[in-house]
UniProtKB/TrEMBL annotation:
SUPFAM superfamilies: DAK1/DegV-like (SSF82549), DhaL-like (SSF101473), S-adenosyl-L-methionine-dependent methyltransferases (SSF53335). It catalyses: FAD = riboflavin cyclic-4',5'-phosphate + AMP + H(+); dihydroxyacetone + ATP = dihydroxyacetone phosphate + ADP + H(+); D-glyceraldehyde + ATP = D-glyceraldehyde 3-phosphate + ADP + H(+). The keyword Methyltransferase does not apply. It comes from Rotaria sordida. Homodimer. Interacts with IFIH1 (via the CARD domains), the interaction is inhibited by viral infection. This is Triokinase/FMN cyclase.
């Protein structure tokens, strides 16, 4: 196709030309999507399909003869595009151009896996084509479906359309003919129940029959949320049927046998989707809006809204609500106690793997509580809805007469990269070992070690003040947790306050249960070290654990003749040295040591005194807070903050701030005691 270039005469010195740009890209960036949304808002599905087909002709190079435009723009300091190019950015997406992103993606996948080849937008396996070629297809945006399921023992080929748009019938027909040319005796199309797919694949099938090609089509409609005249939507459960069909084809079964098995499975298959967000795919408007505390139940995989908008619930309740549809929804499954089922948990694109593990746990336990036998669990990101933060749950009832054969077909080997390589029988709860609390384990383990306890001890009045100081620390750490998290979020992971609050929880419980030996310094600091190790986690937890452990060890070597302040000074110094040795952290590295070291140095400067005065306690608090404020100007060299560049560089170190809070709480108690 020749390029038609519109030359615009312009002689202004500050005007620069950019181009060529495709007419499709030009129209999209003029707001074609918004106009399209407005046009199709209140139309019937058939009218929407007609509009979409017309738009496809308007923007597609196939119909427009590769028409390109040149754009002239007023030159400003902000324009840095090279001459002869024009770039429209798609905010929030890592793509080149909207109208090439699908092709670019397919090329990337095919270049990664040597058993695939690409013809246009058709991905074809290089493995020998079986007698029955199983073909599927859909719009892009659901990756890895369907490109990830092409391979020996699964799909012989798939065809992709534009984002969330059915492949054109001409492309589908061309792929069917190619499969026939490569030796397929029969062609089985398996598609999801959407209007565009039924129309385009149906038209391609009719054209193929005119050429006497033996072809059939299986439409999957596994959505449990909707039961409307055009039928339920097709969702991720279709992948189970596609896998069974591919495995049967690999065994050499004919199309009638394959369709018969797949139809039986289809009758026992149900899927429900849930999401905590809409979708914003390249070139598409936001599908639906949800507040941070909302979720959508029963939505489709193209961003279409679901049947109900609900408040976001804990995942256990969310799973229960979704699986209720199996029993009370419009398309219930005949599930009796002791029925065997397969569970398929599908990530719609935006769920973290951590969340996915929780979802699987809750779904399996929920089905088991309903007296169902979960024989298999399949889990992964297999049919997405671009980047939707959601998931779908598919339940397949395993009929008694077919259970073993279906599981064998699902377990049959395939080289398709997106199908799980290992699917094992569901583990029983016997495989899950519940360990005792790590803090108590450490305490018990420590009790088996012969530890020489120092006779050094506090008197009863000092022990009571330590009790009050610890209670004060707990209260202050609770009240300052959010502020510490805010400080940490600037350049870390935003959990310093939470970590210290976990330690405060353990201290509060120990105080209530009288587990802290308040009169014995070595025992007290050993327990505080175990709490830091077991409860805090992260860099702060390790530093505090090292400091208290070394402090306790040094205190255990003290003798009765030493003054308490001398023993404490030596112990604190040992704690600092231990941290510096293991953490390789030095003063000025922007860590909690930047507050702790000046505090210890101040205490050491008073070791010749018998007691701390109120003035000394106030100065200790002042010295610690001043040192904390000085960390604003330090560059972080330890912890996660060392790996990040922060815009807000004048924030204090959150660990140092926590030390200041703790010391201030201690000082407040002893100042009040001295005043009395």
């Amino acid at each position: 196709m020749r390029k038609i270039r519109f030359m615009i005469p312009c002689h202004a010195n500050r005007v620069q030309f950019f181009g060529p740009i495709s007419q499709g890209n030009f129209l999209y960036n003029l707001g074609l999507n918004k106009r399209l949304t407005d046009l199709t808002y209140d139309k019937t599905p058939e009218e929407q399909e007609e509009i979409l087909n017309d738009v496809e002709k308007l923007v597609s190079s196939e119909y427009m003869g590769d028409r390109f435009l040149y754009i002239c723009a007023q030159r400003t300091n902000k324009i840095n595009a090279p001459a002869g190019s024009f770039c429209f950015q798609m905010p929030g997406h890592f793509i080149n151009e909207l109208n090439s992103c699908v092709d670019d993606s397919l090329i990337g996948y095919v270049r990664t896996y040597d058993y695939l080849e690409l013809a246009g937008r058709a991905v074809i396996t290089r493995s020998p084509i079986p007698s029955v070629a199983v073909i599927s297809g859909n719009g892009a945006g659901h990756e890895p479906a369907m490109v990830g399921f092409v391979g020996r023992g699964l799909l012989s080929a798939c065809i992709s359309g534009s984002i969330f748009a059915s492949p054109p019938s001409a492309d589908i027909f061309r792929l069917i003919v190619e499969m026939k040319r490569r030796g397929a005796k029969q062609i089985l199309l398996i598609i999801l129940n959407y209007t565009g797919d039924r129309l385009n694949f149906g038209l391609a099938m009719e054209r193929s029959r005119e050429l006497a090609i033996d072809i059939d089509m299986l439409v999957i409609a596994d959505d449990i949320a909707l039961n409307i005249p055009i039928g339920p939507r097709g969702l991720a459960g279709a992948l189970l049927i596609i896998k069974v069909a591919g495995a049967l084809a690999e065994q050499g079964k004919n199309m009638t046998e394959i369709v018969d098995v797949c139809q039986k499975i289809r009758a026992h298959l149900r899927t429900i989707g849930l999401s905590a967000s809409g979708i914003r795919a390249p070139g598409h408007q936001q599908s639906f809006d949800l507040m941070d505390d909302e979720m959508e139940l029963g939505m489709g995989i193209h961003g279409e809204s679901g049947v109900q908008k609900l408040k976001l619930l804990p995942i256990r309740q969310t799973i229960d609500l979704a699986l209720d549809q199996l029993f009370i929804g419009p398309r219930t499954l005949d599930l009796q106690p002791d029925s065997s089922v397969l569970l398929f948990v599908n990530n719609l694109g935006g769920c973290s793997n951590l969340e996915l593990g929780i979802i699987v746990k809750e779904a399996v336990e929920n089905l088991e509580q309903r007296k169902l036998n979960v024989k298999r669990v399949i889990c992964g990101e297999m049919m997405t809805s671009f980047n939707m933060k959601g998931f779908s749950l598919t339940v397949l009832k395993l009929a008694t007469d077919m259970s073993s054969s279906i599981l064998n077909l699902l377990d049959a080997p395939t080289d398709a990269f997106a199908w799980p390589k290992v699917i094992s029988p569901t583990q029983s709860t016997n495989s899950i070992q519940a360990l005792s609390d790590s803090l108590e384990f450490n305490e018990q383990f420590s009790s088996q070690i012969v530890i020489s306890e120092s006779p050094l001890s506090f008197n009863s009045s000092d022990s009571e003040l330590i009790n009050q100081a610890l209670q004060g620390i707990v209260k202050r750490l609770y009240s300052e947790a959010d502020e510490l998290n805010r400080l940490d979020a600037v350049s870390g992971d935003g959990d310093t306050g939470t970590a210290f609050m976990r330690a405060a929880d353990a201290i509060a419980r120990d105080l209530a249960n009288k587990k802290l030996v308040l009169h014995r310094p070595s025992s007290l600091f050993r327990r505080l070290g175990l709490i830091a190790e077991s409860r805090m986690g992260g860099t702060c937890g390790a530093i505090c654990g090292l400091f208290f452990a070394a402090t306790a060890k040094q205190l255990s070597l003290s003798n009765q003749s030493q003054k308490i302040i001398d023993s404490l000074c030596d112990a604190f110094e040992a704690g600092i040295q231990s941290v510096e040795s293991y953490a390789r952290v030095q003063p000025g590295d922007k860590s909690l040591l930047d507050a702790l070291i000046p505090a210890v140095d101040y205490i050491k400067s008073k070791r010749k005194q018998q007691i701390f005065t109120s003035k000394d306690w106030r100065e200790l608090a002042f010295v610690t807070e001043r040192a904390t404020q000085e960390t604003r100007n330090f560059i972080a060299k330890v912890g996660r903050a060392a790996y990040t560049k922060s815009v807000e560089i004048t924030v204090v170190d959150p660990g140092a701030k926590a030390v200041s809070i703790i010391i201030q709480a201690i000082c407040d108690i002893f100042i009040r005691a001295n005043i009395k």
